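Session log. Operator J.P. requested a structure for one protein chain; no other inputs attached. Running the standard single-chain path with token output.
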Amino acid sequence: MTIDVGTLLADRYRLEAQIGSGGMSTVYRAFDTVLERTVAIKRMHREIAEHSEQLERFRREARAVAQLNHPHIVQVIDAGEHDDTPFIVFEHVRGETLKERIQRAGRLPVTEAVAYAIEIARALGAAHDRGIVHRDVKPQNVLINEEGLAKVTDFGIARTLEEHGLTADGRVLGTTDYVSPEQAMGHEVTGQSDIYSLGIVLFEMLVGDIPFHGENQVAVAMKHVREELPDVQALRPSVGAALAAVVDRATAKDLDVRYPSTDDLVADLEDVLTIEASRRGEATGEATAVLRTLPPQKRQRLNLRVRRRGLLLVAIVLVLGALAAAAIQLLPDATQRGTGQRPSTPAAKGEVAVSLSPNDAHDYDPLGDNAEHSSETARVLDGDPNTDWSTERYTGGTLPKQGVGIYLDVGSETVSATRLSLATSTPGWSGKVYAAADGSGPPAGFPDPGWVAVGDIEDARAKQNVPLKTNGTRYRYYLVWITALPEGGGKVGISSLSLLRRR
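Structure written below.
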């Protein structure tokens, strides 16, 4: 039941207008007559307040959020009761919800989407540090203020990790459009569940739509449990491989693959923001503000010129004089060379991407003319899914020689890679992965005793992870040796290659 505008709650808060309503409560814009400021008040529906369980959930929201003080969390100011019905007083945020922004603008600019994901993740991290899981992360619960800042609100079904009872295991709470698989199944909910939901929000910001639709909420929830997320790069090709990898890992159904904490997620998102800003040569909206908040070592990787349509706006200047070269500075492990190029599939827990620059890819054709589109090799490391390196076109659908390939040079430091991640525009080809410890490059002839077979590629998929059996041995060169063309095809095209290693 709503109450009349003009009502004075607790002899202090005068209701001015109803601005929202949900199943448990109604939200009003109100005026604080004591401090003379506008506030937002969430007042529980009287009929709901008569149920002790719902009443406790409402009160717990006030207790939980009152513990949090963070620039990206809507602040609780006060709480009280009026006519035996509880209410919570929040700071008033002028603006719109993130959902409204997506509906109004469609998919967001890539750098802006990443910036909002960073702000939301930082807010969730502050809650997780206090043992509080939001449990209902969705764009409807993110407010964008007039300055463009994102603020997370509505911890209405949040609970502390130490608390049990009202949201015990076996009960599914939350909006199923964004619900994690474990929450949909009624299993234990932790901070990783919030990370999954944020990954879905990031997907929606990039694509302009949620990944799953169904006849009802249960059908949608089961898709989160059983179905793989649509490929974000297929839906929006301008999304780089590093950002696609973050989406994949954040929404991984396997908790051992999903980001273990918001700190890990934020670190990768910050790297992606610098990569995407550098690729585009600009940053839009809130991305300009978030770039200023990055750690110094990450800010130094960008050469920022401030402009503003005749005054000041932040624009990203190329670091090494070309967009592809700009990306080579951007991995979190500053001891490695490289670009921030990430695998097209998510790294498992305990793995990191090996840093590589576009100049680290080389063609290899020892059994032919010693050249195989050498001008295209940088394309497998440029983060652009729309470009690829390809073999020559061979007539008859078969290779007229033992093989042809492309190899990665990780440098003199060498690494023991555990996986090779690849994307190909011509699925169905086969080959092997070879590795060599040192030397000036692959031998003039092949095979060579210095090269060890460490992986197999059979009937290559469009995106694939190839386990590498390096057994702790550190290698400098990793060669993708193509031995069979796809059926009915005359060449092989590879758009992305990356290596993963143990931390």
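Operator note: Residues 162-174, 303-345 have pLDDT under 50 and may be disordered.
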